[in-house]
Amino acid sequence: MSTNAYYIPHKATWPIIGTVGLMITLAGFANVLNGSSIGPAMMIMGLVVFIIMLAGWFTLQAVESESGMYSTQVGISYRMGMMWFIFSEVMFFAVFFGTLWYTRNLSVPWLGGFGDGPGRSTHETLWPAFEAMWPTNGPGEIGGEFEPMGTWGLPFLNTLILLTSGVTCTWAHHGLLAKNRDQLIKGLIATVTLGFLFVGLQAMEYHEAYTEMGLTLGSGIYGSTFFMLTGFHGLHVCVGAIILSVVLFRSWKGHFKPENHFAFEAAAWYWHFVDVVWLGLFVFVYMM
Amino acid sequence: MSAVVAEHDDHHDHGPEKGLLRWIITTNHKDIGTLYLVFSLAMFFLGGAMALVIRAELFEPGLQFVEPQFFNSMTTMHALIMVFGAVMPAFVGLANWMIPLMIGAPDMALPRMNNMSFWLLVAGALLLASTLFMEGGAPASGWTLYPPLVLQTGAALPFAIFSVHLLGISSIMGAINIIATIFNMRAPGMTLMKMPLFVWTWLITAFLLIAVMPVFAGAVTMLLTDRFFDTSFFNAAGGGDPVLYQHIFWFFGHPEVYVMILPTFGVASTIIPVFARKPLFGYSSMVYATASIAFLSFIVWAHHMFTVGMPIAGELYFMYATMLIAIPTGVKVFNWTATMWKGSMTFETPMLFSIAFVVLFTLGGFTGLMMSVAPSDFQYHDTYFIVAHFHYTLVPASVFILMAAAYFWLPKWTGNMYDEKLGQLHFWLSAISVNVLFFPQHFLGLAGMPRRIPDYAVQFADWNMVSSIGAFVFGFSQLLFLYIVIKTIRGGTGEKVTDEVWEDASKHSLEWTLPSPLPYHTFTTPPKEIPTEHF
Ligand code: HEM
Ligand SMILES: [Cu+2]
Predict the structure, then answer these.
(1) Both A43 and A153 in a single domain?
(2) H or E segment at B7?
(3) How many Å lie between the centroid of ligand 1 and the Cα of residue B389?
């Protein structure tokens, strides 16, 4: 660790492999959506290539890092990369939070005849009987009758789980900094377990929504915003938990030093980000 | 930052890989810059061909060559290809080439990711281009992809949406790389306020990209789920709102147009002082003006939606906020003019293109100001007037400056001089034809000719004919550019250029202190002195 040189790899084969994998996956998915029979096979093939790329590229990075090829300055580049990547994710979630805000505070009231927005005339000409309220599946009652998701059952439990996992993650980090391997590994095991537990409970919640509450992705704007926000978040929890599992594996192999553990930090940042998004969801989707 | 020294994993071979593989697996910022530039030139001709289909159809009233549906596919694909395939990648290519050289760094901060962002761009463009051959044709909704119209697209819809995702990921990766390079790889002594303006404008552009590309990705994701997964985001019957899509799109779309213009400003601020043989006038005001334009770009989006319907307070707010942009933009135009004031100017091709940029961009800015007046915009909106507006801000601005950049730096990159006579011929052909092409569109728009319609009333016939003639002259003049570029790469005029290429250029920026042609690796040890002439 800490040579003075800025490491510039001479060639890179994983990027092109990953690009091809991603492109085949998406083209396959598009074919699936169009109902074409080659879709599923393409999609699976692309995904396999993509996963191989992820495994290969990250292994390469880990090996290089452990053999001390990255100077402090390279580490700073990686940290900046991760920070700005998380910023882009923040903006992605902002779109869906913004959508929720706009529909609840502007377009649904307009549809109900309030204010002077564009939906007012829709109210007057198409659905004069529609009354603005939340939750709603709109004047067309798209998706039929449904029961909105409660707050204090599973969602509250999940909030506690995710917050606890944030604490255990930080506890593991302290272990790493104090060269306390035992604390590092225990902390990570707890974080990963809590993460997957969260996903499991979320799956139960979805199951209940679909089978007992009549609440689906197709339940008008309420169902759309509810499932897209919580769904994208759940996906991020899955990814975060997988990243943390890899970090756990590497910690167990004896990687990471107090002065050099970018992968751990990046995973932890990502995890805290996912945590904060959940708090936003809990307040704006479940509580309000 | 501490001393930057590049290390190579093999000790004997410092040159590029042999053969085609070199380009596929390269991590070298110059190679990747070249890939971006060549790709964007190819897309420029593809998008240009589509524009000529449009102008051929509009040459006369009535339907002559193409079906209306295909005509609309052409306007849509022309815009998407020019924006995401030609102009943006060209500036990313310049960033790759020039930023490490200008700040004295050995390469970009994240070379492997750099490679991936280029190839993802190609993948996205391939998906997009493939929609031309699909059942139901390529998207025909306009590049803004408004629902509910866009939801009627045939098999192309999911491909176009995923293409946007890929292009978005590519842009975000590229932008992250640029930010990390600028913040982390500057040579000792290269403080932020000593960076050339091209570097500054790209820093701010990269920030814009990371902030808004995910927003576009979110918007098209909602289109996808509305079409295939029963959601109601943009469906009023389900409590959604199609106008919401427009808000989200333009929250992305307005900063997006600045993504194409801010690096343009940066290159202009780099070229003009060299040929005026003076320092840039008002360096720090240029930096602040760029930052304020970027900030304002986030809070003016609904000027694209004045006629769509908004509460009156919204109309007023977006009108005044939009007018504010004229202030920092005016600062810039003033500074470029003041830079030339009493300079000992010469008029080589890069300078000619840059001066044309200052004049014609200002014209585009003025029409922008006209449209920012909400009640007047009811007359201009969705007519050829707005087509004229944004083409003035994009073609004789962004595209001209890209040409200027090519003439300016090609001698440095290749070590060969381009043919000055041919360059000037190319300039005059382009500068005249571009005005023949776009100026009459102002008249057409004011008289009420709508955009994106393949046929028109006979009173619009004359100016459409003029405009189409201009289009063909402009289009074919660009073949001359292609010829000049190829000729320069393959030896040019035969005259070898000096390291500085342009008189005293090395006082302005670091790249001119290096040998011409540039070696494959540069600044493996950081430069000792930082040029300061651009203040
Ligand atoms: C002085 C600053 C500017 C102002 C005040 C301004 C204002 C406007 C307004 C009000 C519109 C909407 C017109 C309508 O649809 O009725 C518009 C459209 C547009 N502007 Fe500008 N603009 C400015 C600079 C620019 C620049 C620098 C670019 C690009 C480099 C640009 C590109 C566009 C594009 C592409 C559209 C049309 C989008 C579409 O509907 O397809 N503008 N501008
Ligand atoms: Cu705008």
Answers:
(1) no
(2) strand B5-7
(3) 7
In angstroms, what separates the C-alpha of A144 from chain B's closest C-alpha?
Answer: 10
Task: State the number of CA atoms in the 13 A half-sphere of A164 facing the CB.
Answer: 16
Element (H, E) at B5: strand B5-7
Whether B159 is in a domain gets the answer yes
State in Å: Cα B212 to ligand 1 middle. Answer: 17
Q: Please name the residues in contact with B348: beta carbons below 8 A apart, sequence gap of 6 or more.
A: B275, B407, B420, B423, B502
Q: Do A88 and B6 touch (CB under 8 A)?
A: no
Q: Are residues A17 and A100 in the same domain?
A: no
Ligand 1 proximity of B260 Cβ (cutoff 6 Å)? yes
* C-beta atoms of B9 and A9 within 8 A: yes
Q: Does the beta carbon of B325 sit less than 6 angstroms from any atom of ligand 1? A: yes
Same structural domain, A207 and A96: yes
Tell me which residue range forms the domain holding A42: 1-70
Contact A139 B175 (CB under 8 A): no
Q: What is the pLDDT along chain B (535 residues), one digit of tens a residue?
A: 334 444 444 444 467 778 888 999 999 999 999 999 999 999 999 999 999 999 999 999 999 999 999 999 999 999 999 999 999 999 999 999 999 999 999 999 999 999 999 999 999 999 999 999 999 999 999 999 999 999 999 999 999 999 999 999 999 999 999 999 999 999 999 999 999 999 999 999 999 999 999 999 999 999 999 999 999 999 999 999 999 999 999 999 999 999 999 999 999 999 999 999 999 999 999 999 999 999 999 999 999 999 998 899 999 999 999 999 999 999 999 999 999 999 999 999 999 999 999 999 999 999 999 999 999 999 999 999 999 999 999 999 999 999 999 999 999 999 999 999 999 999 999 999 999 999 999 999 999 999 999 999 999 999 999 999 999 999 999 999 999 999 999 988 888 899 999 999 998 999 999 999 999 999 988 998 888 776 6
Query: How many domains is chain B partitioned into structurally?
Result: 1
Of A7, A117, A136, the CB nearest to B311: A117
d(CA B238, CA B248): 19
Task: Tell me which chain B residues have a C-beta less than 8 angstroms from the C-beta of A228.
Answer: 222, 225, 231
Instruction: List active site positions of B.
Output: 78, 107, 143, 170-171, 254, 256, 258, 269, 303-304, 329, 332, 451
d(CA B530, CA B535): 12
Output the residue whose Cα is nearest ligand 1's atom 25.
B393
Q: Which residues contact A147 (CB under 8 A, 6 or more apart)?
A: A213, A214, A215
From the CA of B255, how many Å to the nearest CA of chain A?
14
Question: DSSP assignment, residue B383?
Answer: B
